[in-house]
């Protein structure tokens, strides 16, 4: 294996991905490369990835390295901090079988990860998953006890100018399969005209599809200046002690922002705001909802997410993976028969209980997802 190219260097993979122009070597310091980071490197058309940290530590089966090697992008792994600091942006380096040269001088080396090596490491990671799951559950329970005030009214919800009352709200996170899921529900967006909320980079996901975010929520570390300038309202997620590092960036752009100190993730507070201000329905897209998602974000538990979803209940619909339904090859006659069978008992229920109206409304939305109406 021999690769020679200029390098782009950054500790934050998502920052580096924005600067990629194609055919470069990406030098990162990213333990357990996650799916979103890997996809951003693939989209940047990198020739090679050099990682200062272990790309698969073995704690859990992270998907990022597999995505890279499936696209024939090799990883020179775990080169260490010292060599990472030795490499500077714009330098041209030569990599031969994991050895890194600059102007003919050997700087150091790492282990080359291809498909075979990644598969071996992932197998070991799967064997460790039960241990990690036990830790994850314990942490989730411990933090849920500490953060229960998050949903019990002990945290003040800031006043916002956006009118959520009796409206649908689409909350977009630039997470797994966000492009496919957004493509799938375009007809829903056009018909229902929901309030569009972008969580950090989710705002740019909306821009990619030609939509302007009504609200941006987040710590402002992965959203573009363009999105911030176009949004109608900005809510900066702050630490519980009030510190809001992302506020300065917004103010430097000459923009106003609301600060919301709260535990948990930015997508959690986006949902909570919509709920507290009486949104009729909340549709979550690309959000993090399982253990692997949270481990990839470096979180040891999902207490706030569990609590928020517990509070929101039936008002929340998760659009993650809905695109897979559209790719199924069910014949329309079978779908029609299924709908007819399902509607019959529902129609009977309507004559007995007014609460069934909400159930009908939720079913109608799910049918739109299924039929892409």
Automatic annotation (TrEMBL):
Question: Which Gene3D superfamilies does this chain map to?
Answer: Thiamin pyrophosphokinase, catalytic domain (3.40.50.10240)
Q: Where are the transmembrane segments?
A: 334-353
Residue span, SteA-like C-terminal domain: 320-369
Keywords (A to Z) from UniProt: ATP-binding, Kinase, Membrane, Nucleotide-binding, Transferase, Transmembrane, Transmembrane helix
Q: This protein's superkingdom? A: Bacteria
Q: Which residues form the Thiamin pyrophosphokinase catalytic domain?
A: 193-234
Which is a Pfam family this sequence falls into? SteA-like_C
The record's annotation in InterPro entries points to: Put_SteA-like, SteA-like_C, TPK_catalytic, TPK_catalytic_sf
Can you name this protein?
Answer: Cytokinetic ring protein SteA
């Amino acid at each position: 294996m021999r690769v020679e190219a200029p390098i782009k260097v950054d500790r934050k993979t998502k920052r580096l991905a924005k600067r990629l122009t194609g055919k470069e070597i990406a030098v990162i310091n990213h333990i357990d490369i996650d799916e979103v980071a890997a996809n951003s490197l693939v989209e940047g058309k990198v020739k090679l990835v050099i990682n200062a940290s272990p790309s698969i530590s073995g704690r859990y089966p992270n998907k990022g390295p597999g995505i890279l090697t499936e696209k024939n992008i090799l990883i020179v792994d775990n080169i260490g901090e010292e060599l990472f600091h030795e490499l500077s942006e714009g330098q041209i380096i030569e990599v031969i079988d994991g050895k890194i040269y600059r102007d003919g001088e050997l700087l150091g080396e790492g282990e080359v990860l291809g498909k075979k090596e990644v598969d071996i490491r992932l197998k070991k990671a799967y064997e460790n998953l039960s241990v990690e799951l036990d830790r994850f559950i314990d942490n989730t329970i411990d933090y849920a006890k500490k953060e229960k005030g998050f949903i019990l009214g002990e945290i003040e919800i800031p006043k916002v100018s956006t009118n959520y009352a009796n409206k649908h709200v689409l909350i977009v996170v630039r997470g797994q399969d966000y492009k496919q899921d957004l493509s799938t529900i375009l007809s829903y967006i056009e018909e229902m005209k929901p309030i569009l909320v972008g969580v950090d980079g989710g705002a740019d996901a909306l821009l990619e599809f030609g939509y302007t975010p009504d609200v941006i929520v987040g710590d402002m570390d992965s959203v573009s200046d363009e999105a911030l300038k176009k949004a109608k309202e900005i809510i900066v997620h702050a630490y519980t002690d009030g510190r809001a590092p992302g506020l300065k960036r917004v103010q430097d752009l000459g923009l106003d922002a609301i600060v919301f100190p709260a535990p948990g993730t930015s997508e959690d507070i986006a949902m909570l705001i919509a709920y507290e201000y009486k949104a009729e329905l909340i549709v979550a897209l690309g959000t993090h909802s399982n253990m692997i998602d949270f481990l990839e974000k470096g979180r040891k538990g999902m207490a706030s997410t569990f609590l928020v979803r517990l509070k929101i209940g039936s008002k929340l619909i998760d659009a993650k993976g809905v695109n897979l339904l559209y790719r199924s090859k069910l014949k329309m006659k079978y779908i029609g028969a299924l709908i007819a069978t399902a509607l019959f008992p529902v129609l009977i229920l309507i004559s007995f209980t007014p609460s069934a109206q909400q159930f009908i409304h939720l079913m109608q939305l799910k049918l739109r997802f299924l039929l892409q109406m």
